[in-house]
Specification:
Blueprint (H helix, E strand, L loop, with lengths): L7 H7 L2 H17 L5 E5 L2 E6 L13 E8 L4 E5 H4 L2 H13 L10 E4 L7 H9 L3 H11 L12
Antiparallel strand pairs: 1-2, 2-3, 3-4, 4-5
Helix pairs in contact: 2-5
């Protein structure tokens, strides 16, 4: 359920009290662990933590380079962790660490879905968010992009 909220505060105000509490708690964990340089904003209808366009405008879609996010969906809340999707070693670490908590992992490519806040290991979410400084995230993004084709000289 994408939101049309323009600010994080508007987004939180749209949520039921239970959802607001869960999203606000995750937000606090992310903000406490977010490396320097990333900014909190609304993007793609969710709370996003991204590289500002002023720092890195060369994204493929014109949106800020996303690092993490929180979304309240119809029947669950999701925490998006792009650094897990983009790095198999980090993904293995995260999955193994999550399972070690004894909590059930419901994960897509980059999102962890849960119904109750107690189902989410908040300390692990904070640790995952803290792993990659912004400049390293930009470097990884650039390395993942296909090389640009060189223009062929015109034949005359």
């Amino acid at each position: 359920m994408k939101s049309a909220a323009a600010t994080v505060e508007e987004y939180l105000d749209e949520l039921s009290p239970e959802r607001r509490e869960a999203v606000s708690t995750i937000r606090e964990v992310i903000l406490a662990n977010l490396p320097d340089g990333y900014v909190e904003m609304m993007d793609f209808g969710m709370i996003a933590y991204s590289v500002p366009l002023e720092r890195y405008p060369k994204t493929y879609n014109g949106h800020p380079l996303s690092y993490a996010g929180i979304a309240s969906e119809k029947s669950y809340v999701s925490v998006h962790l792009m650094n897990i999707y983009g790095d198999p070693e980090t993904e293995r670490w995260f999955v193994d660490s999550y399972k070690a908590t004894g909590k059930r992992l419901d994960m897509g490519k980059s999102c962890v879905r849960f119904r109750k806040l107690d189902d989410l290991p908040l300390e692990l979410i904070g640790e995952a968010v803290s792993r990659i400084p912004m400049e390293e995230w930009i470097r990884r993004y650039e390395a993942s992009r296909p090389p640009k084709k060189r223009a062929r000289p015109k034949r005359g």
